[in-house]
User: Fold this.
Amino acid sequence: MGDVAEPAPPGMGDLASHKAKAPTQPTSAAGAPERPPSPAAVSSNPAWDAAKAKPWDFDVWMALIQPLEKAGKESRADLRLVYQEFLEQFPLCYGYWDKLARLERSIAGGAMSAATPVYERGIAAVKCWELYLKYCGCAMLNCGVAPDEDDQATEQTEDEKVARTLFARAVSEVGGVYNSAKLWDAWYAFELARPKTVLFNGVEKTLTARLAVIAMRACTSPVNPITATKYLEIFGQTLFEADSLLQVATAVMPHLPADERELVQPVLSSDEGALRAALRASVDRCHGKARAKAEQLAPYEDKVCGTAGRPYFHVKPLSAEQKGSWEDYIAYAISQGNKEFITFIFDRALIAVASYPEFWLRYASYLASVGAPEEAKAVLKRGCTKFFKRRTTLVYERAMLEETMGYVDEARATYEELLSRTPSLPSVQAIIKLTNLERRAGNIEKSKALYAQYIASFYELQEWQSYVFLSLHYASMLAQVARDALGARQVYVTCTEVIKAAAHSLPDDAQMPRLAMSVVQAYVSFEQAKGGVAGIELARAAFHAALEEDSGVSLEDRVELHMDFLDFEHDRGDVGHVRAQQIKCNAACIAGAVADIAAGVTSKKRRRSNAPEAARPSPAATAAAAQAAASAAVAAVAAT
Assistant:
């Protein structure tokens, strides 16, 4: 994943023409070429089956890739497919984009047009100087080396034009990274190997002028001070060695800040001494500013890129120190208040910390806070589609952001796409979020239809926990939002009956009594909230139904319900109802104790009692007394 390989052979024509001439391939929705059919050798390989079964397992992919890499030319078609599938799962492994690009080029007989689309997809996935260096390395290989004695001016070739364009693009995008010295060195070495005088559409540029531009841009970037100082010295040498100082000035000035150009412009027609001094003074000032910035960055760069740091992606979790180093760097960047610099550091950080959703959320939150919601949405979309395909944290944040921005249709599509991933067992959380979106959008009927649809689905699947959870949410929405008490009551009653029947058919399933209890408690709370005489009678009826022995509620939970019912009667009922429930409650408590002793266990719940706790008699005495008391209590209940 990590080291920068030496560039490998031959050439490349104009980048635009290569893009035009690149063989057209059908593309997937993600923008990558569609996969060719699995070669027989791969599809029959057990390691391929393992990788497809566990695509998130990096080690499984390595067990498949490494033997194919050693197998030679006969495995190239297999290796291409495996690289493509691997990079779908691990797009930040920049070394494998380079491997795939070189493989495509090799299969195409050395045509760089086959490698270019791969590099471009790689750069889109992981924009780092290391991958740009590999890309530039391929681009420059067909350019050859000019003979030392060749002083004749020659028009730059198409391959040279592409290489220069790519180097310029690379340093513009990632040449400001503190440790990007190898990229600058590669560009400098490339120009040293070119003819001394090159014509750019007929305009002559000497080697000295071309090197001066590279040196000036390098020494005024916030790179490592050692690198910057080296290129400042090179720039100074070019000012004295130039055949035409005016040509050097003309080449350098477009890369100077506007205020510096204004200082140099008046001396362009002066003698060389004045022009040389003006150019050097201007570049020295720019270098000083860049160096000051680099020195501020140095402590953070040493932590994230030093021996204890990790600036690249790896499946191995970051240490607390490594993660903290990126957190500190981001906090420093935000404190500077420069959006361009902040996004630059965030983008670098998300290569190393891509597996941590909190960093994606922080990036999106920052962008939203500075009035860039579209950029925030794009960040969350990238995280959702590339790095958290099986984790929903970012998907929910993305949908909420889309809804907040007024893109309700997009938010709806985000939730629907998430639900489509697991059609056989939909996510309850995603369903509730989608129904709530419809509620907020004023589509109450659609929200109700979604609830009904998925409740029926969970019933068919006999996924009782999901069935109960969604049913209770639906009933709550009907009661509190739709103001449909009859509809809510019907949902509670139906859910109670369904779980009661399921509990009888699954007597050994420990979750069923708990689910039955949760339904009963929600139903009783709903009826209690109605108030008035009718509400009291409805709540009383709900208690009675729940306290039936075949209600699906466990004996232990029925004891708790009896005590809740007693509290209810104290608060709402007359003395007759209180007395009757007191007797039933006592009987239930005793029956529960008898059951505990018979089972040889102690109840995990402390029974509520009006009597003070007494010293415990022996188990045998307790059992006998409890049995007698239970019989008496049952008789008393019958008498009422």
